[in-house]
Amino acid sequence: MGTRKLVIKLTAGQAEPERCGQALSVAATAVASGVPVSLWLAGEAAWFAVPERLKEVVLAHSPPLADLFDSVLAAGTVTLCTQCAARRDITPADLIDGVRIAGAPTFVAEVAAEDSQALVY
User: Fold this and answer.
1) 10 Å Cβ neighbour count for 36?
2) Within the chain, which residues score under 50 in pLDDT?
3) Strand 37-41 vs strand 116-120: parallel, antiparallel, or unpaired?
4) CA–CA separation, 99 vs 11, rounded Å?
């Protein structure tokens, strides 16, 4: 049996750095362990798909959250929720290279797959 994909949905934004740190730490640790990771940004976390926004979030006793995000992006998949992007007027031209925009059908397909495990932060 192969490694299960870890699907993580981050909904917290800059106002909740500890929740952001938890999600990104788990995602980065999974990637470093060879676990396939799909990180979804929804709600206020949608802003983290825009360059430099995550650098504004500081969490004591944590590696820089932007560094954790970059490691996930380099080895996993990062997706911005379609509706969350639209509500914030975030367009594909605004995104960090490598971040995709997709909606609920794609999210459901990922978490419903037999080889997936989902976490929500």
Assistant:
1) 17
2) 1
3) unpaired
4) 16
